[in-house]
Amino acid sequence: MGAPPLDKPSSSALSANSLSEDILLVNAYNPLPEGFYPENLVNLYKQKGRSFQLARADIEISENVYEAMNTMFTAAKTDGAEGFIITSGYRTRDEQNAIFVSTTDGTAAMPGTSEHETGLAFDVTSMENDNFELTSQFKWLSEHCASYGFIIRYPPGGEDITGYPYEPWHYRYVGKEHAETIMASGLTLEEYLEN
Ligand SMILES: [Zn+2]
Q1: Which fold has domain 31-194?
Q2: What dihedral angle (degrees, nearest 10) is formed by the CA atoms of 114, 87, 63, 109?
Q3: How open is the CA angle 26-29-34, to the nearest 5 degrees?
Q4: What is the pLDDT of residues 66-118, one digit of tens each?
Q5: Residue 18 C-alpha to ligand 1 middle, in angstroms?
Q6: In the 3-class helix/strand/coil scheme, how is 17-35 assigned residue by residue?
Q7: Tell me: the pLDDT tens digits for 45-60?
Q8: Domain ranges in the chain?
């Protein structure tokens, strides 16, 4: 395990150029290159000492993101917030294509434009309420995710910029420094990378 590749030393000055090199931006206008494959994927089910639950046994994510997730959900447990269930992580382009063609309401991302294809994002739910936003787990996660390098990638009111309605269940790893700045600012990732 090396240092998380997306994290920067806290003392570094950030410029617009260094930001866009640091953070992989994926959206309808910035598709992943053909044949993109994230390095260091791990199967979450096989991780010993995992501090969260899984909806399926075949969910993968980048190893540094798993480490950050596990640290985060361990801290949540210490705070009395338990019952996080991961429902999705890395998706291959073929898997995203299958979702895209089977979703008729226009909400699924085109293959190549889903953050799930980066290995840097996960979806989470809990048994407490079908609407994750109303759960105690969401309350903890939304307040603390930035400290562990995660952002709510599709915040409320950001639809015109991100192309997505509010998704309280979708978290993207960008590293602690970026995440804290983004979540404190209320900016979308797109706006942050332009500034
Ligand atoms: Zn998602």
Answers
A1: Muramoyl-pentapeptide Carboxypeptidase; domain 2 (3.30.1380)
A2: 0
A3: 65
A4: 999 999 999 999 999 999 999 999 999 999 999 999 998 888 889 999 999 99
A5: 26
A6: HHHHHHCCCCECCECCCCC
A7: 999 999 999 999 999 9
A8: 31-194
Residue 13 alpha carbon to ligand 1 centre in Å: 30
pLDDT in tens, 171-190: 999 999 999 999 999 999 99
Distance (Å) from CA 15 to ligand 1 centroid: 28
Q: Which residues are catalytic?
A: 167
Per-chain residues with Cβ under 5 A from ion ligand 1: 123, 170
Give per-residue pLDDT as tens, 4-47: 444 443 333 444 455 666 899 999 999 999 889 998 999 999 99
The CA distances from residue 98 to 74, 106, 108, 111, in Å, are: 33, 13, 10, 9
